[in-house]
Amino acid sequence: FPVLRLFVLSAVAVGLLAFLGYRFIYRPVTALSNYSRGLSHIEAERYTLANERFSRAVGLWPRRTWYYRYADAFAAKRQFLLAEQKYDDLLRRYPGDRKGILDYARMESRSMSNYEKADALLLQLLDKDIHDYDALLAAGDNYLSWADSDSNRFEDARRAYASLIGTYGQKDELLFRMLRYF
User: pTM, whole model, 2 decimals?
Assistant: First the structure.
């Protein structure tokens, strides 16, 4: 009986170590390797392979920061549809992710001139907090860019900047935005 008990305890300990090693060492290390290789595939303009590596890595160990890195890498290579896909995947997995929404809206506004989509994204944040500094600033910038094609948006930009100044005071960043507006 003592030998059997020792054998069972040893088996449980080995099983527990194997499980913990797989869960907390193997999976994160393998995922990190796949994430990194995927980024190198983006640099080499092998976008399908990069997405395959990303999918493998997310299956093992999903990390929010890697969505940002991939989206930024795709945008740097002017692969905006692939970057959009990463942001959409991020927001599906992490709904309401503040940084993801802000970065996505900036990309839509600055790089793709899709002002309506950027506005819809920023409204997600502004619906939660009407005085969100970064979201209001991005909305004002979006409206100001949008005003090049739709002059009705000038007033929206002014309202966003005026709201920021009223809430946060006269900061240089906000005053320069107002100068740009004028």
Answer: 0.90
